[in-house]
Amino acid sequence: MPIVSLKEVAKSYRKGREVIDVLDGIDLDIEEGDFLALMGPSGSGKTTLLNLIGGLDNPTVGSVVVGGQALGDLSGRALARWRSRNIGFVFQFYNLLPVLNAQRNVELPLLLTNLSGAQRRKNAQTALMIVGLDDRASHKPGELSGGQQQRVAIARAIVADPALLVCDEPTGDLDRETAEEILDLLGILNREHGKTVIMVTHDPKAADHASHILHLDKGQLVEQAA
Amino acid sequence: MIGQIFQITLLSLRNLPSRLGSSSVIVVGIGGVVGVLVAILAMAKGFEASMSRAGQPDRAIVMRGGSTSELSSGMGPGEMAVVGSWSEVTAASGELYIVADVAKRSNQSLANLAIRGVEQDAFEIRPEISIVEGRSFVTGRTEMIAGRGAVAEFEGVETGSTIELRNSTWTIVGMFEADGSVYESEVWADLATAQSIFRREGGVSSMRVRLASPDAADVLSQRMEDDPRLDLTLTGENEYFKSQSQQLTTLIETFGYGVAAIMAVGAIFAALNTMYTAVSARTVEIATLRALGFGGMPVVASVVIEALLLALLGGAVGAAVAYFGFNGWTVSTLGGSFSQVAFDFAVTPELLVFGIVWAVGLGLVGGLFPAVRAAGLPITTALRGE
């Protein structure tokens, strides 16, 4: 059973009187344990597709089922709760909270659980250890390099142990060497920790780290490469 | 839910130092509103208190029928004798009430100083009168005692000084207090001497009577109405002073609320602007939290709580400024009998609480709309910082 299943998904936006079709007739299954790269030119609908899978947006038409849960059946509040348990987000610009140190940033998703403070701290330390930043737990984002910040963001994404990591241009703001480190880390999480990774990227070299590559153009899947 | 509200609010408050300048706009704006409102209402409260302190339930004032103040009232010796003979009246003092132009200390402009000629029973009727400096006047002499408020407001009425009134020189022989009531704005003299100097032989403005019981007021009122010889009205002192203060108190309160309302509009816009800016600066942060699973309601609550805390701080600052700047400050104004009434601003605990309530109201309005906007933005749009 695929971890992600999209059936006849379409997404359109209204801009004034104009209706803009971003995605059209998407049918897609993503198997558990996959590392998928979503590629395509700007405006092709990559991020919109990622947002639909991550439960951040709803399709105009069609169904999105993730981990056996039809997202369209969930209310806004239930969807938020579902995201906190099932999805780890990694953003291009890290989206760390500047007033919190690395440890507290990683702990954020755990604040939505019933874990004790001590358990939250322990889990956050473990996540930071996995990304190799346990010695920077007390540093605030402003005191870390871009690559280190993205590692903290990845630690935040995995701390609640979600099955699916949704990464939007995770290396888009990094130099090549640091980008490779981040992609290696995502690979480790995929292979050794069993995380399913879906990554939007413009960068073919980044996409090479994935086990599958999907190309989107004008809102449609145009090619599937293994 | 409460845990989420607490966590997000904590994050917002940690962010405050980076928004100190814009946040202080709320504090200053709302502080100004509360400060002005409380100060003006303290003026009304002080005036009202000064007037009401003069009244006692077992005391009444007798005036000519239709008169609304002592200044426009007049009674003859015959009427005084009838009223004084009633068994329900345990003490009575015929009193002459006139005003004279005297220079104010503050700006040397002339203002109405109330002069009250009294009989000895006046002190028995009003036991709160106490001589705190010098001595009382002696019957038959052109001597006066001045209330503490009158001494503070007018030139030439301090103990030991003399004052020219109606071509006659009066010596101020003492100063009295009256529990901070309106009597402290007056100068008192012997009735017979005052009648002679001010050419009101035999006549008085009113009678002050002490009643055997508060209930006797109704009995005496009815008796006056029934007696064709008398064209008099009897009013309980509390009621009399309330009516004397009501017009001015209402005026001051209306003015205070008007000014505060205008300032409040400005403060609300300042709060809205500040909170919209705060929310705008944190659009991506808030969207990230929502993406991670934090709900929209905790976001709304956190923004509102931040606005409320800033408003509370502003309210506390405004209330403190009003209290330390104005409480007990003595001023004077024209009272109900066209005489200057000196009174102290009274910044009471109730007024302080009222000011804080206003601050909370302003903070709520100023925080709610930006909060709803913050929570209402689509996450995908907000994540792009739009």
User: Rg of chain A to the nearest angstrom?
Assistant: 17 Å
Q: Level of helix content of chain B? A: 40-55%
- Our estimate of the beta-strand percent of chain A is 25-35%
Q: How is the largest sheet of chain A built, in terms of strand order?
A: 6-7-8-3-9-10
Secondary-structure element order of chain B, N to C: HHEHEEHEEHEEEHEHEHHHEEHH
The count of DSSP E runs of length 2 or more, i.e. the number of strands of chain A, is: 10
Q: Tell me, what's the shape of chain A?
A: globular
Q: What's the gyration radius of chain B in Å?
A: 29 Å
Strand residues, percent of chain B = 15-25%
What general outline of chain B do the C-alpha atoms trace?
elongated
Percent of residues in helices of chain A: 25-40%
Q: Given the structure, what is the number of helices of chain B?
A: 12
Order of H and E elements of chain A: EEEHEEHEHHHEHEHEE
CATH superfamily of chain A: P-loop containing nucleotide triphosphate hydrolases
Largest sheet of chain B: 10 strands, mixed
Tell me the CATH topology of chain A: Rossmann fold
CATH top level class name of chain A: Alpha Beta
Please state the average pLDDT score of chain B. Answer: 88
Number of domains of chain A: 1
End-to-end separation of chain A in angstroms reads: 19 Å
Largest sheet of chain A: 6 strands, mixed
In short:
Chain A is α/β, with parallel strands linked by helices. Chain A contains seven helices and ten strands.
In words, what does this structure look like?
- The complex is a heterodimer of chains A (226) and B (386).
- By secondary structure, chain A is an alpha/beta fold.
- Chain A has a single domain, classed as P-loop containing nucleotide triphosphate hydrolases (Rossmann fold), CATH 3.40.50.300.
- Helix content of chain A is 32%, strand content 28%.
- In chain A, the strands form two sheets. Chain A has a six-stranded mixed sheet, with helices on both faces. A four-stranded antiparallel sheet of chain A has the order 2-1-4-5.
- In chain A, strand 4 (61-66) and strand 5 form a beta hairpin.
- The longest helix of chain A is centred in the C-terminal third of the chain and has 17 residues, at 176-192.
- The relative contact order of chain A is 0.20.
- By secondary structure, chain B is α+β, with helices and mostly antiparallel strands.
- Chain B is 53% helix and 21% strand.
- Chain B has twelve helices and twelve strands.
- Chain B has helices at residues 2-15, 20-53, 77-85, 121-125, 148-153, 191-197, 216-226, 237-281, 283-292, 296-326, 349-376, 379-383; strands at residues 59-64, 89-103, 110-118, 130-134, 143-147, 162-165, 168-177, 186-190, 206-211, 232-236, 330-334, 340-344.
- In chain B, the strands form two sheets. In chain B, strands 1, 2, 3, 4, 5, 6, 7, 8, 9 and 10 form a ten-stranded mixed sheet that branches.
- The longest helix of chain B is centred in the C-terminal third of the chain and has 45 residues, at 237-281.
- Chain B is elongated and about 90 Å long.
- The two termini of chain B are 27 Å apart.
- Classes of the chains: A alpha/beta (226), B alpha+beta (386).
- At the A-B interface, helix 1 and helix 2 of A face helix 1, helix 9 and helix 12 of B.
